[in-house]
Write a structure and sequence with these properties.
Low-confidence stretches: none
Shape: globular
Radius of gyration: 13 Å
Distance between the termini: 15 Å
Strand content: 15-25%
Mean pLDDT: 89
Length: 109
């Protein structure tokens, strides 16, 4: 699986299209799926996402700290999901200004 991370409008969609994969092989905006999933379903969601060819997640770990406890929990859960997926990914790409920066080649040991 390829994990593509980056803030909104960083070029993730353009990069995903350049891979030429069918839409059903790509999980775009996966951070929204994480936010909509309760703690009990998170493990199943991680297994599902790890089985996709490409997972794209918005980078929501930076910026202003959310003002509500619920939003902070969602941000923390998204961060844990990104870590879990990065550990299982064959490749991790960070998009910056439309440039794909390779952070990891090969799964973490």
């Amino acid at each position: 699986m390829i994990l593509v991370l980056g803030p909104r409008f960083s070029g993730k969609t353009t990069y995903l299209r350049s891979l030429g994969l069918p839409a059903d092989a790509v999980a775009d905006d996966a951070e929204l799926l994480v936010a909509q999933t309760d703690e009990d379903g998170l493990d199943a969601l991680m297994e599902y996402l790890a089985g996709m060819r490409v997972v794209a997640m918005g980078d929501i770990q930076r910026g202003v700290v959310p003002s509500t406890a619920r939003e902070r929990r969602q941000r923390d859960r998204a961060g844990r999901a990104q870590q879990h997926l990065a550990m299982r990914a064959e490749r991790v790409v960070l998009m910056c200004c439309g440039i794909p920066l390779s952070l990891q080649e090969g799964p973490c040991a």
